[in-house]
Specification:
The protein is an alpha/beta fold and 343 residues long. It has two domains: 1-35 and 267-343, no CATH class; 44-251, Ribonuclease Z/Hydroxyacylglutathione hydrolase-like (Metallo-beta-lactamase, Chain A), CATH 3.60.15.10. It has nine helices and twelve strands. Helix 6 packs antiparallel against helix 7 (253-276) and helix 7 (253-276) packs across helix 8 (291-314). The model is unreliable at 1-8 (pLDDT under 50). The protein binds zinc ion. This is Metallo-beta-lactamase domain-containing protein.
């Protein structure tokens, strides 16, 4: 835990730079950080062969996770070819190399989109060009987003399924992937992909095994929806390995429990800080007539209190806690204020 000089708030009276009272020794957004915390061992996956540029993890029963160390996708070997789930541009051309390694000479027949975000499916256009006739499957919400996006790198699905908690069975060459949409979460249309034979669950941009969630609860479209999904996923699926879409290793049920515990603490810390912080306190009289300024000051102090209360317990448990904890507290206090206080 690197100590750092806190230089990020300016006193109107003295012009001095100083932190809010009680702030953790973690750089807030917009303050330069010259020393981030070290990544914990639990956050790291096996090394990726630098020459190949990807790593394949055999999950059994024909299911494989492919990663370049930061992004993850799935390849499923079937009796008639390969089903690919997601096509991250960061893996790009190596998707075909990995497919050939898993099943030499076998065609890619199907591509499933977990959700519409470019960083997870932006190589789909190239994959389609290399595999003409590819069947592309997605939830209808994802199809609607892609229709609007009109982006050649993300071709429209050829097959969509609709509804919430109405699982769709994709059956290919004797293998089944069950696709289910639980309702808005990270992005509308973001689905669970379940391969029962290998007990592999894929759920992207919701769980970050061993790591702090990406900023603002992974830019969640619907924060209460993310809480519902994370809180229910272990009861809903009897999985042993999770393909979470990010970080260098697969996830476990324990990773989900840990993230849920963190999110529960985050919610409690933000709620407590919102209640215990007095708006306008310590501000100049003339600034108190500016409601935007009053709220900016209030939210800053709520965030500082939230971060300070979470730091002792969580800094050593989650890699990159220090990188995004301010973002998480800001996203959480905002969600509590506009989405409502309950989990
Ligand atoms: Zn995403």
């Amino acid at each position: 835990m690197a100590g750092m000089v806190l230089l990020y708030a300016t006193s109107a009276l003295t012009g001095e730079l100083h932190p809010y009272h009680g702030a953790a020794d973690i750089a807030p957004p917009m303050a330069r950080n010259d020393a981030y915390d070290a990544v914990h061992a639990e956050g790291l996956g096996p090394l990726v062969d630098a020459k190949k540029g990807y790593r394949i993890e055999d999950l059994g029963a024909g299911a494989f996770m492919v990663t370049e160390g930061i992004y993850q996708m799935m390849i499923l070997r079937t009796g008639t070819g390969l089903v690919v789930v997601d096509a991250p541009p960061s893996i790009g051309d190596r998707i075909m190399a990995a497919a050939n390694e898993i099943a030499p000479g076998q065609p890619i027949t199907h591509l499933v989109y977990s959700h519409a975000h470019v960083d997870h499916i932006g190589h789909a256009g190239a994959l389609l060009a290399a595999n003409p006739g590819l069947t592309i499957v997605a939830h209808g919400e994802t199809g609607a987003i892609l229709q609007r996006a009109n982006d050649k790198s993300r071709p429209l699905p050829t097959e969509v399924f609709d509804g919430t908690d109405k699982p769709f069975s994709l059956e290919v060459g004797g293998e089944t992937l069950r696709l289910n949409y639980s309702g808005p979460n990270h992005e509308p249309g973001n689905i669970e992909i379940w391969h029962e034979k290998s007990r592999t669950l894929m759920l992207v941009d919701v769980i970050f095994p061993g790591w702090m969630m990406w900023r603002r609860m992974a830019i969640a479209h619907d924060i209460p929806g993310v809480f519902d999904l994370v809180g229910g996923i272990n009861a809903k699926y009897d999985y042993t390995r999770l393909i979470a879409g990010h970080v260098g290793r697969t996830g476990t049920r324990g990773d989900v429990e840990q993230q849920l515990a963190f999110m529960t603490d985050l919610h409690a810390a933000a709620a407590t800080a919102l209640g215990s912080t007095t708006p306008g306190e310590g501000m100049r009289t003339q600034d108190k007539t500016n409601p935007w300024a009053v709220f900016d000051n209030y939210i800053d102090r709520v965030t500082v209190t939230c971060v300070a209360s979470l730091t002792p317990k969580w800094r050593d448990k989650l890699s990159a806690f220090d990188v995004f904890i301010y973002d998480q507290c800001m996203a959480m206090e905002q969600s509590i204020r506009v989405d409502g206080p309950s989990l």
